[in-house]
Design goal:
Alpha-Beta Plaits; Rossmann fold; 2 domains; seven-stranded mixed β-sheet; four-stranded antiparallel β-sheet; 14 strands
Length: 287
């Protein structure tokens, strides 16, 4: 039987083009993306595709490297360069002890997220993930233990479960996390187990169809702009009246358009932070 093949497609670009290229690659069918910054500031984007027939018509000759990867090995090759990341003085993301990588960030930080990032997006390095982790930390840190224990948290499009796991480690008492992808749900459950976060309720759902009765104090959604925009009414509907919504995955080039969308959907921006061209918004329901 012939082995199934996947392909890595590698681009080296200026940082100002990272957001637009990432959006374009996902629109062309990329299964996942990882980014790295070289010593001269060049951004290296590695995309995984299951078919490359239509790529040549979208990029000039010589602008990309294509390599074929056979069987399941394609999923794990990038882990050779993954050694975890430091988010701030209290949070680190580290490869779990059973993986083939060795953490260079092992520390005594109070919130150490052990992660097997294979098969899903969210290894703690991408600016959108970093921003969300920092905003969750800022939201939960001032709360009393009792308040955190009573808090209802939802992570939409959970990926590897990294955001939900931080909320659990910080004491959030009621945590739901869902993703549309079966593999992401499986991986999130595995990562929850690694971090002894068995209380996180992980399930498969589509944001546009999910309409449970539960309302939340805090919702996170680290998704692409094209997914967030049409689903703002659904996100609004899942918030408690006093709830907070943390959104990221939005390129700075869409800032004005998205702020107008927030306003039109009854949401106001309480805080906004940009990192490497990506925006993260903290939103509340408008009075």
């Amino acid at each position: 039987m012939k082995s199934s093949a996947m392909y890595t497609v590698i681009f080296r670009i200026h940082s100002r083009n990272e957001n637009s290229l990432s959006d374009k690659l996902f629109s062309l069918g990329a299964q996942s993306l990882s980014t790295a910054r070289e010593s001269d500031g060049t951004i290296v984007i590695t995309a995984i595709f299951d078919a490359i027939d239509n790529l040549s018509g979208h990029f000039p000759p010589g602008s990309m490297e294509i390599h074929e990867l056979v069987d399941s090995k394609w999923k794990y090759t990038w882990l050779e360069h993954y050694h975890g990341s430091v988010i701030n003085d209290e949070i680190s993301v580290e490869p779990f002890a059973g993986s083939d990588t060795v953490s260079e960030t092992a520390s005594t930080r109070p919130y150490r997220i052990l992660l097997d990032p294979r098969d899903a997006f969210g290894d703690g390095r991408h600016p959108t993930t970093v921003l969300c982790l920092k905003k969750i930390h800022a939201f939960l840190s001032p709360l009393s233990r009792d308040r955190k224990n009573s808090l209802h948290f939802l992570d939409v499009g959970t990926g590897t479960g990294i955001l939900a796991i931080l909320a659990c480690l910080m004491g959030a008492g009621h945590i739901d996390a869902f993703d549309i992808e079966t593999d992401a749900v499986t991986k999130t459950r595995s990562n929850c187990s690694l971090n002894e976060c068995a209380g996180i309720n992980v399930f498969q759902a589509d944001i546009s169809l999910h309409g449970g009765e539960q309302r939340y104090d805090l919702i996170t959604a680290n998704l692409l702009t094209g997914i967030i925009k049409p689903n703002l009414p659904a996100l609004h509907g899942m918030l408690l009246p006093h709830g907070t919504l943390i959104l990221s995955g939005i390129s700075h080039i869409w800032h004005d358009e998205m702020v107008l969308c927030f306003t039109n959907n009854g949401l106001r921006v309480e805080d906004m932070e940009t990192l490497e061209g990506w925006n993260c918004y903290v939103l509340r329901i408008s009075p």
